[in-house]
Amino acid sequence: MFYKYALNYPVLSITLLLILFTHPISAKSNGDNTHFNQNIDVRFQSNISSDKKEILRQWINHSSDALTLVYGELPVDHFITKIKFSKRDSGVVPWGEVSRNTIPEVTLVVNPKSTLNELKADWTIYHEFSHLLIPYDAADSRWFSEGLASYYQNIIQARVGMFNESKMWQKLYEGFERGRKDTKYNHQKLNYLSDNINQNNSYMRVYWSGALYWLKADIALRKLNTGYSLDKALHELHKCCFDRYLSAGEITKQLDKLTNNNIFTSLFTEFSKSYILPKYMDDLNMLGIEQQAGRVRLGNKAENSHIRRAIFTGK
Ligand SMILES: [Zn+2]
Predict the structure, then answer these.
(1) Hey, which of 83, 142, 149, 312 has its CA 20 to 30 A from 211?
(2) Distance 97 CA to ligand 1 centre (A)
(3) CATH topology of domain 19-133
(4) How would you class 292 by CB atoms within 10 Å of its CB: exposed for 0-12, middle for 13-18, buried for 19 or more?
(5) What tens digit of pLDDT does each residue of 58-76 get?
């Protein structure tokens, strides 16, 4: 789920004639992993023409390639992507959601008039696919899973070439700013706010506190210089633990165990109790990111500018 159209969207009651299409994933490894046995079943609503299906397949192929740029393979070997057409004539992808069944399902509602370039430029699919990076159905600590998707949607778009490093950090910075300004419920802890998001609509603080959690964990891991990054930690999690349901707290414990530290659990405790979006400007400055009048500038003299660059490149 995501916040853009999360409210009052009419329930779609379209009868689907599901057409199964097995979509081989091209090997695009950023490490030493090859993956030949992964596939996505793309299921189209029945009234979609074959020409349009071809465009939609190219879009899904491009976006799944972007997802493989986290650690060289998809986080799940097999998942379903359902494509429906929007009844409204606005937006490009007005709705997306992920259902974590035995086989995960990503549903995307697409404006039928959208071109391939417009589809690739829309963030929704990158966000929904990024949800698959943890074995988790977002039933508890939604800030944790929405934060992961909000963080990686920008990273994988940049890594697949949709925008440059500067724009990637601009988007993250703007997200943190939106979260910082969402102070209406600053008498409530993030955990409580997140559990009641459908009543308080505090999407900005919940989503961007979450994204900041993952950025801070990523920086802390990379600073240890033990070869770990968030990309690599998630890959280890993929290898060990995708055969079971894990709560957010259990995921943090597992990530700490896999990376030999307590970064994920200690930040999790800190963020769960936060009353506002935790501070982020110092972290950005240390990465060599300055802002002036809301525009970010990247510099390479800061202590951790190599980390900033590595988050962008995935190396
Ligand atoms: Zn989401």
Answers:
(1) 83
(2) 7
(3) Zincin-like (3.30.2010)
(4) exposed
(5) 999 999 999 999 999 999 9
Q: How remote is the CA of residue 270 from the centroid of ligand 1, in Å?
A: 22
113 alpha carbon – ligand 1 mean position (Å): 24
Q: CA dist 68 to 33, 42, 235, 253, Å?
A: 10, 17, 11, 25
Give the DSSP letter of residue 193: H
Q: What is the DSSP letter of 290?
A: E
Domain boundaries, the chain: 19-133, 146-313
Closest to 255 in 3D by CA, of 216, 221, 219: 221
Report how far ligand 1's centroid is from the alpha carbon of 15 (Å). Answer: 25
Rounded to 5 degrees, what angle do the CA atoms 50, 51, 54 make? 85
Least confident of 13-22, 63-72, 236-245, 260-269: 13-22
CB of 84 closer than 8 Å to CB of 65: no
CA of 131 to the centre of ligand 1 (A): 7
Per-residue pLDDT, 33: 27
Distance (angstroms) between ligand 1 centre and the Cα of 127 equals 6
Q: Cα(302) to centroid of ligand 1, in Å?
A: 32
pLDDT number for residue 205: 98
Q: Is 185 helix (H, G, I), strand (E, B) or coil?
A: coil
pLDDT above 80 for 131: yes
Structure tokens at 190: 């993030």
CA of 128 to the centre of ligand 1 (A): 6
Put the strands of the sheet holding 19-24 in their side by side order: 19-24, 39-44, 78-85, 105-110, 95-99
The structure's pTM equals: 0.89
